[in-house]
Design a protein that fits this description.
With 166 residues, the protein is an alpha/beta fold. It is 42% helix and 22% strand.
Length: 166
Amino acid sequence: MPLITVTYSSSRQVPTLKADIAVAVTELTASILHKDPKVTAIIVKSVDAADWFAGGQSLAEQNLASFWLDIHVTEGTNTKDERAAYIAAVFKRMGELLGPLHNESYLHVDEVRGDAYGFGGLTQERRYSAADLVDVQIALIVQRSQKLAHPLEHGNQAFFGAKGKN
């Protein structure tokens, strides 16, 4: 359920650029960080290259592109290696989409505590706890059904009688 904001600047004038960025970031977020694309939200914003400065000069003057990507994920759901791979892959893909990138292009993976982050009215911690509760309930139902299907194997002789009949 990451929330991702991508702000970019590029001289490329491609009508589908914002959608292309959203698709690429969604795919990389799913494949590297294992986030469900169905609950991934992405905001894509464009900034004029004359209004983006790096190293004291505008990107327009330098004839370079740049981006800032900020992704919020639940703390502890990804390893350092996954985050590093994600940063490298996004940087590479954004260069393909935007053109030559200024080295001062940034990506921030913001790990947020599960009790301080959520969607649909539930924190991630509550969502996780609810999933655990469902798993426990399913396990109990399966266990009960197995006892009823095989009463003698599960110590139900008192209820079913010595031969499994009542």
